[in-house]
Amino acid sequence: MLRLAAFAVTSALAAAAAGPLPPLPEPLGRLLSGGPDRLTITMANTGNRQMDRKYELECGPVGGNHPWPEESCATLERLAAEGKDPFAPVSERQICTTEHGGPATARITGTWHGRKVDAAFRRTNGCEINRWDELEPLLPSGRS
To answer: What would the pLDDT profile of 95-104 be if each residue is shown by its tens digit?
Structure first.
């Protein structure tokens, strides 16, 4: 029993030292999180008053008041299948083009694949614009 406890502690320490884990594959992430993925998307300054609002999205099963729930969940699943974290910020080491895609901002909070999400999006340079565009239609076009 003592060996098993020592192994568990050693494994946990090794995992913590390795850094954050990638999202869990579906449906394991939902099973461990105890329910469907739930995201709140808050849009502002899009230049379209109808879009400047808060959307709710659920995946597994699909639901919420997001205008394109099936397509949004499919986009997230496609990115996960490609090994991408759709909520990861742009790396500080990334070289980005100098362009401005408008004042639109978005914040996504909730849970996805069994982990907490709290990500901010804007369209202030080429990298941020690309990051936003990769999530369409989850983030409806923020072009002003």
So the answer is: 999 988 889 9
Residue 34 pLDDT:
58
Q: Where are the alpha helices (DSSP H) in 18-139?
A: 28-33, 69-81, 126-134
- The half-sphere exposure of 54 on its side-chain side, counting CA atoms within 13 A, is 5
Tell me how far apart the alpha carbons of residues 74 and 21 are, in angstroms, rounded to a whole number: 22
Q: Which domains does the chain have, with CATH numbers?
A: 22-134 (3.30.350)
Q: Which residues pair with 110 in a beta bridge?
A: 39, 117
Q: Which of 79, 86, 111, 99 is nearest to 143 (CA)?
A: 99
Q: How far apart are CA 15 and CA 38, in angstroms?
A: 26
Each residue's pLDDT tens digit, 46-88: 888 888 899 999 998 999 999 999 999 999 999 999 999 999 9
Cβ neighbour number for residue 73 with a 10 Å cutoff: 24
Long-range contacts of 60-64 (CB under 8 A, 24+ apart): 60/26, 60/27, 60/30, 60/36, 61/36, 63/36, 64/38
pTM of the model: 0.73
